[in-house]
Amino acid sequence: MDGYGVVKSLHVISVIAWMAGLLYLPRLFVYHADEPPGSATSETFKVMERRLYKAIMSPAMGATWIFGILMLWLVPGWLEDGWMHAKLFLVLVMTAMHHAMGRWCRAFAADENNKSARYYRIANEIPTLVMVVVVFLVITKPF
Q1: Domain extents for the chain?
Q2: CA 34 vs CA 76, 108, 120, 139: distances in Å
Q3: Can you state the angle between helices 40-51 and 3-33, rounded to 10 degrees?
Q4: pLDDT at residue 1 tops 90
């Protein structure tokens, strides 16, 4: 195994963990939004959401960025490619979604959620669409 292979493997593992959270946390919000604040179910969702965001998603996002930057350092020519510019923009979109989910998580924790389950259903589609485009960009390198 060479250094690039190790870094790439760690990057892919980190992305998988991060994407799992980006896809699952909004689904928890969908169900949580329908629960009355203070109920036992709402309190359980708060614990699940906090643990997912802080213990899995945030470290995975950090690792994704670290290993992604290391890969760009190891293969600097990628920064000249249009597909990489598009990918990096979409990673910024995913990072913004991550932080939005953190705000939503804090709102639920404080019993201050003012968004509907439908809102979170729609928000749940954004990471999926971004993921599809990123995969096609990385595999096909169209430009």
Answers
A1: 3-140
A2: 48, 11, 11, 39
A3: 160
A4: no
